[in-house]
Amino acid sequence: MAAQSCDSVPEQGGEPGVALRARLADFTKTFDRHLDEFLRPGSDVPPQLADAMRYSVLAPGKRLRPYLVTRCCELVGGRAEDAWHGGAAIECVHAFSLIHDDLPAMDNDDLRRGQPTCHKRFGEALAILAGDALLALAFELLTKHTPDAGVAAGLVLELAQATGWTGMIGGQTADVLGETQPPELARVAYIHARKTGCLLTAACRLGGRLGGAAEATLAALGAYGRDLGRAFQIADDILDITSTPAALGKTVGKDAAAGKQTYPRCVGVEASQAAARSAAREAIAHLGAFGPEAADLRALADYAVDRSY
Amino acid sequence: MAAQSCDSVPEQGGEPGVALRARLADFTKTFDRHLDEFLRPGSDVPPQLADAMRYSVLAPGKRLRPYLVTRCCELVGGRAEDAWHGGAAIECVHAFSLIHDDLPAMDNDDLRRGQPTCHKRFGEALAILAGDALLALAFELLTKHTPDAGVAAGLVLELAQATGWTGMIGGQTADVLGETQPPELARVAYIHARKTGCLLTAACRLGGRLGGAAEATLAALGAYGRDLGRAFQIADDILDITSTPAALGKTVGKDAAAGKQTYPRCVGVEASQAAARSAAREAIAHLGAFGPEAADLRALADYAVDRSY
User: Fold this and answer.
1) What's the predicted TM-score (pTM) here?
2) By the CB < 8 Å criterion, does A44 face chain B?
């Protein structure tokens, strides 16, 4: 299938983010067809399990991580079609984390991506199992659809570390435990880096690996992903205060109510906005080796901070 | 480290299972030292998360799956030290499944391996996260410690499929959903094959792969694991009726109370015992290509049926 995602470079000028949003929407349309294919269950899968998995993964989303996988693959000379399964794998991990984070024992959320959370729709047992199965499926996709075994093994190691006790799940643990502790910037930074940064870093590096990038390029792409994650997460903390459920597609004001460690709680909204901007600038700086072909990734860093949802 | 597990062939004669139990105990002592090493957290892992993971994985257990990985590796000419990480990976998956199965939303169990279940000890949120992190760690271990990338990728694909929607998690889903359905032998067989069979099959095949076995040998080892799993699971169903919490290290009589799909509920205890014996015989038949070096695996199939705990 043609790589629709790299057909155009976003326009400069005009309302910031408009061209990027159109491009993301285009990408999502194409990517979601592939995602749907990867999520087709065989006849030996209990239909209720497949339904719960598909409900959560295929719910409308920004597909930020798959976009990064695909674009970083293309940026280093690969083709979008070499990266679809990598994007699907990381979207499965992302959906798994949302399902489990939303559980009553964790953040206890009723609304996600504009629809009832997985456990609200399917019950807690199926939600736990759907999350588990999505995590396993991510590693199945990476090894089944990557032709080169050396590349496949590298992808698995990278994604497993970004997901596990040193990565996203470590961050979610600190987040849950942090609810009973006074807000502290170092703790917030740790949580952000693990909960969001690790998976965005992995998305960029996985894309680079799938495109055959050298180690130095992987490092630059990973650093971009890490700082982009910082920008997104600080902006998310701010949006939890300033946005509406209709715009966000999820509950707002929950962070403060739950006593969450957030940037605004530590330094206020204004300083948080400055920190988000600074993170976006640093993300963009890591793309110095690339020319106009990386314009959309630079715009994405600005969009992380400027978006209203 | 020397391969203590293959230093001796179990004695014939004497009380059946005595030599095998001694051998399993020897293996466990050696293997658990390696397992402990693989479960040492870095400084960037939240200590509470590592504690919950270690509590569940390192709790005294039969280490049946790691034993199969190691012995199948040795049986095809590999060394035990090539297989420790494979055994650790599959034990992580097993512990993950126990933690999540025990959750209040699932089987709601208070006792496991003779100690309070993970969520009873650490709370539900940490138990969910510890399970998640153990699943991710399994794939990290396989790719980090397998020298040959082609072998590593094969191990990951096999374990991911045995674990995910087509495997163990699919089986657990059918098990949970089956509680509201009338007992039916086809459903019980499906649940057993997925919940237990898939991971035992994978243990044998992973061991074979780590020892460099050809495809035909992998198929025989896998078939042995599958039928061994059947024997163990039918016997477990029987023990849930006939044993005590002190002997089992977990709650008994729960299956019937929860309306679980079990063998005895479908055909009674006597026919279940016959079915378990038949499964053990079929498991042993798959080892026809091996000589006395597979005596312990044959004894293991008998032990699956004859054990009283």
Assistant:
1) 0.93
2) yes
